[in-house]
Amino acid sequence: MLKLKSASLKPNLLTVALASLGLCSPWTAWAAGQDATAPTADPAPANQAHEIEAVTVTGNRREQSIQKYSGSIQAFTGDELDKLAINADIRNLQNVVPALQITKQEGKYEMYLRGIGASDSDFSSDPAVATYYNGIYLPRPRSIGPMFFDVERVEVHKGPQGTVRGRNAAAGSINVISKRPEFDAFNGNLKIGAGNYDFRTYEGVLNVPFGETFAARLALFNESRDSYISNGYPFDLEGPGAIDNSAARLSLLWEPNENFTAFVMMDKVKEEGTGDPGMFTERAQARGIDIDDLDDPFRQYFRTQGETTNDIEGISGTFTYRFDDAFAVEFSTAYRKYDFYNRNASREWQLGPVYPGSEVEAYHNPERLRWNDTFMQADKSSTAINELRFFGDTGRLIWSAGVFNYQEKYDYVSWDVGNGYWGDCEWFAPGTTCGWQDGLGGENRGDGSKVRSNAVYGDFTFSVNDDLRLLAGLRYTKDKKTARERHVKYQFVVPDALFQQFFGTAPNTGTNPWTTGLTLLSPGFRLRDPGARMPVPTVCTNNDWTPAATAGCNNGLDYFLDGFQSLGYQDNWDEFLNRYRDQIDVIMRSDYGPSATNVSVYEDDYLDWRVGAEYDLADNQMLYATVSTGTRSGGLNRPMTLADGRVLSIQFKPEQLTSYEVGYKSDVHWGEMPVRFNAALFYYDYQDKVLQNMIDVPAPTPDNPNAVTRQVLNDNAANASVLGLEFEGRFGFEHGLSLGYNFTYLDTEFKDSDVLDTRSNLIVPLDGNRLPNTSKYNLNLNLSQNMGVDWGAVSSFDWTISLAYRSDYYLTAYNSRGFGLDANGNVIEIPLSQMSFNNGSNPAGAGPAANGLAMNDKVDGYTTLNLSAGLNFGQDERFRVDAFVSNLTDEAYSGKGFINNSVNIRYLNTPRMFGLRFASKF
User: Fold this and answer.
1) What tens digit of pLDDT does each residue of 299-326 get?
2) How much helix, strand and coil, in percent to the nearest 5, is found in the chain?
3) How far apart are CA 173 and CA 119, in angstroms?
4) Sequence-distant (≥ 6) Cβ neighbours of residue 457 within 8 angstroms
5) Cβ contact 564:528 at 8 Å
6) Tally of CA atoms within 13 A in the half-sphere of 827 that contains its CB
7) β-strand 737-751 against 879-886: which pairing, if any?
8) What is the full DSSP assignment across 177-238?
9) How many of the other CB atoms lie within 10 Å of CB of 430?
């Protein structure tokens, strides 16, 4: 089998040149608070308390002290990302930002903040936590890539940002701010590192000024790692989770005078790996074995190696002209595209981790160990964003107003494809065998789907007097989404004698499905790129399965083979079909009718607003109160009809969030010790919350009238509330010691929510249930020290311990509650174990039957611990060596789940990671 290229140092010529100059990464020193972003301070003398810097953030689209921002925000410098063992993985932010959850599903980041988020973020379903790159909106999480290199800071804004930031910032936003070029020095840095799982990384930066008004900055990055998942089968395969990511960023800054600034950034990212698929857990769950009960949650069964690639390119520019303090104009423009491809590692349905007794189920049929069947997907997106903003500060009035436009073209393909599902076809034509390529509904494509969003906004802060300020803002947004999709399912009718002629043997009818010898999806296979398909031939549209009724729609052979860009080196489907093309019928059916095409349009508009007040109790103490809204855009489902005839809605409405927040911020001294204490009390009114579920849609065949396909449904099924309390701050002790803390309490519940339970197809009440992915108690503590010393060549040392605790939470809205019917047909609550579960999988035939516990969605609380320590050498701390450990206690937990009456798919965190890094600068 092919393996991912070994993770090793691969310095290119430019990086070698940078290393030869003795460059280094930004030198590390303490920057106050886990939200500190101020310039790095000198190491503290032993007897002096560590001062807490007044850091600068851009929560209101302008630079201001974090202690003057009326809201909850955390920020981290690039050095802090290293010290806190966040490194380059955006998912690790959840270890230092309480109530933030980030999970990666098949190359796609899914984020929740204070209980608000979205479990899907494809073309028609947007995230609820907006992501920005240097203040410019990134609509697709797949376009993020590795950004945490040569970073000035990362800001996490909590609470709705609908007025200031705009669409899909209902939960808040994350803004990644890269370092800008510098005019005053030719400098650079180099960082290299290595760790467990053959981890390798390098980062090189070169800053070049061209005179006093123009400068350029080039940053290169590479990170690679082998898989941390081992195989329960004795196959020599690289497991999921391996990565080999590279990125380059070129920044240009021009300031010809004190009025005009032009900043342009270009970046290119290449991501490769073995994918991030979920793990089937239902067989283990039904036996009462949860993730934290496993000896090794990262030992799993998989039959083939996964593959993921993602190519990202972007260019953006921000051009600012300041006429005076009272009036300025800024134009921001960006173009960004990505080309993503993913093939999951092949797994046996319903079988994931290795657990006691799983061997019987894993080896129930040796023939199936050679199957390649798996889920594949690809999507391409290109976005253009333009924003014209006017702003100023008259002394009493700080104002901002502008217009925003976003346009996107989106193509995709998804298909569960493989050797095929084969069985007896006597019911269709005597002497034939039928095969199917319709896993997870068949071949789904979107070609030329589009999104357009326009907005106009204004935001104002008025100083009533020296202490009191009033805030107000309004934004109007209009969205339009147009989905152009294709859908095809394939049936192959093959005379029995052809298998004997081609393979020299008849199909093995002892397996389920039959094993024919036909192979598809061996290494080298690739689906046809999105947007590159030939026209669809005639498609069957009725439920008449007789040969006469399908005579005009049985010519799909060439269209089927056109769906593949390349075939694997062991694949033989093309040879078999082409050799007997005159004897094989390839019947095509579609949920979309004779054209196999569906066009759906979503249009809506909405208002976001905010009002508030800020009052300075003293120079370093502020009270604030705000009411603000945020909106997550609505979208589209594919057409679906349930078994009882109910037609599900194609559209779902925007989610609306209104936040009421009061807070207090202070920087004071207790004797000689500086203390920061911030507190916020907030209440969210959450309307039209979208619940995402996988539902069974009838797809009957003559030999299986109960056959279904599983589709994703987004439904405005619920309302909810969130009551929260957050305490955040820092103590600065003597000897360079600093203790930071953040505690967040969340009391969430559904209200007025009778929803379709996709586990039972009953309408059930969720009132009182907690929101998914939301813990009541969330705590982060980080203790650090930075001390100047005189130890020969060592000029200073530093260390950081970061602890994160999260109490239990649920992965779905059902909160592990079971529902059924009483004798009178009324919906009642029953033990989860009494709910019925699909035992139609092959492992279920070998092991005991699964019960409703297979749908358990509870995740127990856990604590993670990250450590780092470093030594700085030489004049101006030119050299640095540091070590880090993330997830010291090797905790394993589920960050996401797809759960219905057939599957319980979990997405896990990464295990313990550790490494050593060397950095130098000039």
Assistant:
1) 999 999 999 999 999 999 999 999 999 9
2) 10, 50, 40
3) 16
4) 163, 166, 400, 401, 402, 403, 404, 473, 474, 475, 476
5) yes
6) 14
7) unpaired
8) EEPPP-SS--EEEEEEEEETTTEEEEEEEEEEEETTTEEEEEEEEEEEE--S-EESSS---P
9) 9
Q: Which two tokens stand for residue 163?
A: 């007025």
pLDDT, tens only, 415-473: 999 888 899 998 888 999 999 998 878 899 999 999 999 999 999 999 999 999 999 99
CB 763, CB 735: distance < 8 Å: no
Q: What is the reported pLDDT for 49?
A: 60
The residue type of 60 is N
In the block, residue with structure tokens 């493989």: 418
Residue 525: partners with Cβ closer than 8 Å, 6 or more residues away? 343, 372, 564, 566, 567, 568, 571
Instruction: Count CB atoms within 10 A of the CB of residue 551.
Output: 12
What sign has the CA pseudo-torsion 805, 811, 814, 817? negative
Distance between CA atoms of residues 601 and 696, nearest Å: 24
Return the residue matching tokens 């607003």: 609
**Ramachandran quadrant class, 761 (left: phi over 0; alpha: psi -120 to 50; beta: rest):** left
Please report where in the chains the tokens 């857990």 appear, as a residue.
Answer: 281
Q: What distance in Å separates the CA atoms of residue 913 and residue 505, rounded to the nearest whole number?
A: 50
Non-local CB neighbours of 785 within 8 Å, separated by 6+ positions: 735, 736, 737, 738, 797, 798, 799
Q: Name which of 482, 430, 411 is nearest 453 in CA terms.
A: 482
> Tokens 């479990």 appear where?
119
CA distances from 487 to 405, 441, 490, 552, 711 (A): 31, 8, 10, 18, 12
